[in-house]
Specification:
The complex is a heterodimer of chains A (247) and B (403).
Chain A: H1 2-29, H2 31-34, H3 57-69, E1 77-78, E2 81-82, H4 99-107, H5 126-138, H6 143-150, E3 166-169, E4 172-175, H7 189-200, H8 215-228, H9 233-246
Antiparallel strand pairs in A: 1-2, 3-4
Helix pairs in contact in A: 3-5, 4-5, 7-9, 8-9
Chain B: H1 2-23, H2 35-54, E1 62-75, E2 81-93, E3 98-109, E4 119-134, E5 137-145, H3 151-155, E6 179-191, E7 194-203, E8 207-208, E9 219-220, E10 232-242, E11 245-254, E12 266-279, E13 284-297, E14 301-302, E15 313-314, E16 318-329, H4 336-339, E17 341-352, E18 360-374, E19 377-386, E20 394-402
Antiparallel strand pairs in B: 1-2, 1-20, 2-3, 3-4, 4-5, 5-6, 6-7, 7-10, 8-9, 10-11, 11-12, 12-13, 13-16, 14-15, 16-17, 17-18, 18-19, 19-20
The chains are: A mainly alpha (247), B mainly beta (403).
């Protein structure tokens, strides 16, 4: 009877365990969906980032390469390197940026700030955005850098050569130029154009968002600016490449 | 044992149902595209859109741009007035090397004191063709913006100029050329991390005013049909030691005397500076601009016989003038509403020989506040204090946009 009673009491617990097991299996089956970044326009919270849970060194490295190839440094500073058009990105984790907040900043930057000059990178894949977010959340300075490096999440040199990488932004495929493993940082036309855009155009007037003109119109406008400023032919081509890629 | 079998049965059903629920992801069904397919399709559509945009008539080669402004001015001892101006610009890229730029300037003038003479001034501000020689040089001809001291060809448009009015030295009574009819060659040369730029021009040059008692001895830079066989030759050399700073030196030589008048040599020198930097210490962007122009003309006698009623008039015809302007915009302040304000202060000076018509030294201080509605649209409010003893203080409000 005692045994019988014990079995009778164990019955509900077995059901509970089975239910939990059921949910675990279900969640495993849907992991692919739930790990995707939230869609553009999703909640803009400033929740503390859950650090780098799930971020791999490979993902961070890919994010770093994308950051270089997309010429983000034309506008943003990381560890003192880069342009000053946009905010410093050296401490996004420390600032408590969430993954969804950073994702939205790339997908739909005007959702948070209608006057921002930041172009919407709508043609990047979710994986590419994920990698960029991983890279940004991996960046820390000061005391945190040591701890992060100890976790194996930092370990990325401030300026690192990318031997060969390419990325498609819209219809434009950009490849890094030059670069050896320890050579100087590669400068793609778009990266150079981003820096020149902020420096040369910003010397006289506010920077116009790239979305104000079509690609064809930017070609005409940049020819005009080459005459007026004047620019070198290479400067004209690089700025145009950046504006068309950001458009 | 029946209860035990039933329990195991429930467990198996629950586990399998959980797995089945998890596996019932609608994205796995054949009638949904994969992420990869979606990205490929999206890229294809973007490429198609770009091709469509690039093939549209009127969109491939032409661009209509320019600026417009509306304002209100109240000058001391003068009636207040509203103002309006419109400067459409046509940019036409004929091919990869050939380019045309045309600009009209439409302004309202008048009326005179008797209430008559109101008109719309239409001026062909610019009309010139350029041809790209190579990466470091291009040539052009027509009516173009003369880059002397850099103001007119860089900072003149109403949405770029941070105050409602132009500096005295570049204004209607100024001593620097604004446009010229002729030909030019210009370009830029990189050297390590520095940059040099240059422009050399040959134009009809200015015309010396000899018969007007109110302006004799000054130069008219709107000399569209040359009055003599002599042309003006000028150049500007710019140097950017760092990207944030440009300094320039300009020079122009001409013989502006009309036929039958004593030979006059005109020499213009100009220095200009432009510094724009985003400074963390100031939590914003600092702009510092300055230019100074020296004008030296041969000393001659105007109306030597007195036939025009104001001579003989002789004076040492050396003039100089310039401006210095600082502007600060707190773009890195945490208060977002404050980021769109820009605070401006300009000092102006123009010295004309005391013996010349309109002679004397004018000095002005103009503080102003701009509010940027968009990156190319702003409202400017400024008050000019004229410290040279003339009753020329002025309040100005301007709404300007570039399009």
């Amino acid at each position: 009877m005692i045994l019988h009673d014990t079995h009778k009491h164990a019955f509900p617990w077995l059901i509970v365990i089975a239910a939990i097991l059921s949910m675990v299996i279900a969640s495993c089956s849907t992991t692919g969906r739930s790990s995707q970044p939230q869609a553009p326009g999703s909640a803009l919270g400033y929740q503390p980032a859950s650090a780098l849970s799930g971020a791999s060194s490979a993902g961070i490295q890919k994010g770093k390469e994308l950051y270089d190839t997309l010429a983000c440094a034309g506008c943003h500073v990381i560890n003192g390197q880069g342009g000053k058009v946009g905010p410093d990105l050296s401490n996004e984790a420390k600032k408590g940026r969430s993954r969804s907040w950073l994702t939205t900043k790339m997908r739909n930057p005007k959702a948070d700030d209608p006057q921002t000059l930041m172009p919407a990178y709508g043609t990047l894949s979710d994986q590419q955005v994920n990698d960029l977010v991983d890279y940004m959340l991996s960046l820390t300075t000061g005391k945190q850098a040591g701890a992060a490096a100890a976790r194996g999440l930092q370990g990325l040199p401030t300026v690192r050569a990318v031997s060969s990488s390419s990325v498609t932004v819209g219809a434009v495929t950009v490849s890094s130029v030059g670069g050896g493993a320890r050579g100087p940082a590669p400068v793609s036309p778009i990266a150079a154009g981003a820096t020149l855009w902020s420096q040369r155009c910003g010397q006289c007037h506010n920077l116009r968002p790239a979305s104000e003109y079509s690609d064809a119109q930017w070609a005409v406008a940049m020819h005009h600016m080459r005459v007026r400023v004047p620019l070198t032919g290479e400067e004209q081509r690089n700025i145009l490449a950046f504006l068309q890629a950001s458009n | 044992m029946g209860w035990r079998n039933r329990t195991y049965g429930y467990i198996i059903v629950l586990v399998l149902s959980g797995g089945a629920w998890g596996a019932s992801d609608p994205n796995t069904k054949d009638n949904y595209v994969s992420r990869q397919e979606y990205d490929a399709l999206k890229q294809e559509m973007t490429a198609t859109r770009r091709i469509a945009e690039g093939s549209g008539l009127g969109d491939t080669k032409l661009l209509v741009t320019g600026s417009a402004a509306a304002g209100f001015v109240k000058a001391e001892d003068q009636p207040s007035t509203f103002t309006a101006e419109f400067a459409p610009m046509l940019l036409w890229q004929l091919n990869e090397r050939l380019f045309f730029e045309g600009e009209l300037g439409l302004t309202l003038t008048g009326p005179e004191a008797n209430g008559e003479g109101s008109a719309t001034d239409v001026e062909l501000d610019l009309a010139y063709l350029t041809y790209l020689l190579h990466d470091y040089a291009l040539v052009g001809a027509g009516k173009f913006s003369v880059p002397f001291a850099a103001f007119h060809n860089h900072l003149d448009p109403s949405w770029i100029n941070k105050l409602p009015g132009e500096p005295l030295v570049f204004g209607d009574e100024g001593i620097a050329p604004d446009t010229g009819v002729g030909a030019f060659i210009t370009g830029a040369l990189p050297y390590h991390k520095m940059l040099f730029n240059y422009a050399v021009w040959l134009t009809n040059g200015p015309a010396l005013i000899t018969d007007n008692p109110e302006s004799a001895g000054s130069l008219n830079f709107d000399n569209f049909n040359d009055l003599n066989m002599n042309k003006a030759l000028g150049f500007r050399l710019g140097f950017l030691p760092i990207p944030a700073l440009e300094v320039g030196y300009s020079f122009e030589f001409s013989r502006p005397n009309p036929p039958g008048f004593e030979t006059v040599h005109s020499t213009l020198h100009g220095l200009d500076l432009n510094y724009v930097a985003r400074l963390a210490a100031l939590k914003g962007q600092l702009t510092a601009r300055a230019a100074w122009v020296w004008s030296n003309l041969s000393d001659v006698t105007y109306d030597p016989t007195g036939a025009l009623g104001f001579g003989p008039l002789f004076f040492d015809n050396d003039r100089n003038g310039g401006y210095a302007e600082v502007a600060y915009r707190p773009v890195d302040m945490s208060e977002r509403w404050l980021r769109n304000f820009e605070f401006v202060l300009r000092y102006d000076r123009l010295a004309i020989p005391s013996g010349a018509p309109g002679g004397g030294t004018r000095e002005q201080w103009t503080p102003g506040i701009d509010y940027w509605i968009t990156p190319r649209t702003l409202v400017k409010v400024a008050y000019t204090f004229d410290t040279s003893g003339e009753d020329a203080d002025m309040f100005a409000l301007q709404f300007a946009t570039g399009f």
